[in-house]
Structure formats: structure tokens, C-alpha cells
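## retry 2 of 3
previous attempt timed out at serialization; input unchanged, resubmitting
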Amino acid sequence: MCACPAGLLRAYLFPHMASPDTRTSQPGWLRQCATRIGRFWPIKMIGTTLGMTFFFMAYFWVLRHPFGSPLVMPLTSVDRWIGFSAAALPLYLSLWLYVSLAPALLNTRRELFFIGLAALVTSAAGLGIFLIWPTTIPPSAIDWSAHSAFAFLKTVDASGNACPSLHVAFALLAAIWIGRVLRQTGAGLLPRVFNWLWCVGIFYSTVATGQHVALDVLAGTALGGVVALISVKRCNQPSVAPPADAR
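## retry succeeded, writing output
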């Protein structure tokens, strides 16, 4: 007899609270995540470090060598509604921890290959757009000298390379892959909601810190979402074994 809808919903939202007849001896999700972090850690550490290094080298080269005059992205009512918040800076900077957490939690070389490929495609697509179609955010009336915490950020990361927001694209890429890990490990509703709240918080921070406008966020969401979903789908597909030799 089929399980009732309420039971199916409870099993989906709270997999760690499965009934005794379906519960397995699988360790808790936190212990599984800790074990995953320990797997292939030298590859993960070196790969993440090199990936970020080469990305920033290419990012700042493109930022300083645009092909033509950058197009100024328009403000929308969303930008005016969000406004500026200095308190959003920690959320903005937390992206680099967030995107490092995604590969750290992966369990197989196949997963590492696909998330690495997804990051490469996202970078290449974003930087290619910046090079061919440079964009920038509108001038701001904010007195940045009154916000010392932003001095380094505004000096190093100028207002170019605006659309699509790669900050948003990489945040969504990480959120989708981390969400996959949380489902695999049987994590409950709270960590899964926290994962998405962190991602949305980074989205918000890109506008609230004055680094991007809402249209940049929308374009970054499209880029990161498409690449992430395709990479996860391809990773989930079983490897096709070569056909046996005909006798």
C-alpha cells in the first residue's frame, strides 16, 4: 500500500527522522560532512587555491583592459529599495568561504571534476561577456571615506565587470552543489534552509554594498543557475560502461 502524502512530505523534509523500519545505520549528516572534507583534501585545497588565483588574475586583467567604453547599468526600484548598508560587507566577503565549502564537501573525484568544470565554464562565460560587452555600475553619492572598511574593496575592485555578477553566479553554483550534499547526507530542514539563506544573503550584499545593481544580480543568477544545474545533472548520470566485444 502506498505511503500517505503526509508521510512522504515528512520523509522528504526530515530524512533524519525516518521511521524505525526505514532508518539505516548511516552516520549523522554532520559526521558524514566531516568525513567528506577529509577525502582528497590536498587535491581540494590545491585546486581551490589555484582556481581562485588564476580567476583573479584574469578578472583584474579584463577589468583594466575593457574592449571599448563600459555601458553604465541602470538602477531600478529594487536598487532604491535595498539601498546601501555597511553591515552587508561581511556577507559579501563570506562568498569566498562559501564557494570553498562546496568542493570541500564533495566525496568523489567525479564530483570534483564536474564542480571544477562548472566553475571554469562560469568564469569563462562571465569574463568573455565582460571583455566583449564591458559594463559598470552608476556613480554613487556615497562618501566612501566615511566607511573605512570599504576602502580596500573600492580601491582593488573597481566598478567595472558588473553584468553578470560573478559574485552571484558563484554563490548560486555553490548553493546548488551544497544542497546536493545535504540531501545525500540526510540533513534536515534547518541546514538546508540555512544554506539557501546564506546564498540569498550574498545576493543581497552585492547590491547593499554598492558593488552591483539588481540587473547584475538577475544576470548572474541566470548564468550560475544554468551552469550549476547542468553540471549536477551530468554528474548524477551514471557512467556508461563500454559495450562488450561482439562474439
